[in-house]
Amino acid sequence: MGYEKGTGSLFVADLGGFKLPAELEREVAGKIQATVMRALATVDFRGDIVRRFPGDSKIKFPDHTLGIWVEPEIPR
Amino acid sequence: MSVKPLRADSAERRRKPTLCPSSRCAEGAILLGVVGSDAQVQFLNQPVRIDAEFVDIAHQGRRPEKRFRFSSPCATNACRHWTGSRCGVIDEVFDSVPETHRIETRPRCAIREQCRWHRQEGDAACGACPLVITDLMVDG
Ligand code: SF4
Predict the structure, then answer these.
(1) Following DSSP, what letter does each residue of B80-113 receive, concatenated?
(2) Contact B1 A38 (CB under 8 A)
(3) Which of A14, B1, B18, B89 could make a disulfide contact with B74, Cβ separation 3.0–4.6 Å?
């Protein structure tokens, strides 16, 4: 089994030979990551609607949750 | 919003607990990947712990467990999927995902050394894992 190659989004701001002061560099990097995470949180490709394997309907777990299920919490 | 990349230090890994690879969208969980339009999970290169702001934004849309995969410590006996000795979810996944659909190339996955399913099934788990959508309930 091989490994998948990464082809996802990559954000780069190339300042050539110029280096920001370390503290400012960290601050900017944190802001970029936070912006990306906020955008990511809104993503919905609706893949769950596309995907229906015949076996899905036979999943025996209540509410078809294939995830952690800790009592007294219920899946929905 | 603060983002904490996970450290890959091996001594730290040894101390870390076994992780559930199909957990809930809750503060402190690891964001493993995003369910793509082809219904396959695209794993993040660098998994990150999600914070309250991510959880809040994600819950404004359809249920996050339909759209993302999250990871958190395996709850063993506290989880209804625990059979007494193993996680029953991966067995159910193997039953529901046809062999012909399984993935040849295992995804880059930062939790592999701690993953409950990988510990049980080895690389075979990684062939079916990208096809797992945590919440399969039909909307509505
Ligand atoms: S089954 Fe494999 S790919 Fe899926 S979370 Fe576990 S180690 Fe990662």
Answers:
(1) TTB-SSSBSHHHHHHHHS-GGGS-SSBPP-TTGG
(2) yes
(3) B18
The predicted-structure confidence for B15-73, as pLDDT tens digits, reads as follows 679 999 999 999 999 999 999 998 899 998 777 899 999 999 999 999 999 999 999 99
Specify which residues B115 forms β-bridges with.
B19
Tell how far the Cα of A14 is from the centroid of ligand 1, in angstroms: 34
Q: Any CB–CB contact under 8 A between A34 and chain B?
A: yes
Cβ(A67)–Cβ(B89) below 8 Å: yes
For residue B50 and ligand 1, the question of a CB distance below 6 A is answered with no
**Beta strands B4-5 and B41-49, pairing class:** antiparallel
Separation in Å, CA B112 to CA A39, B36, B41, B66, B100: 26, 21, 15, 22, 23
CA of B108 to the centre of ligand 1 (A): 9
> Ligand 1 pocket, B125 CB below 6 A?
yes
Indicate the domain borders of chain A: 1-76
Complex prediction ipTM: 0.82
User: What's the rounded Cα separation, in Å, for the pair A28 and A34?
Assistant: 10
Closest by CA position to B20, among listed B82, B99, B67, B97 = B82
Q: Look at strands B68-73 and B19-23 and give their pairing.
A: antiparallel
What residues form DSSP beta bridges with B31? B48, B70
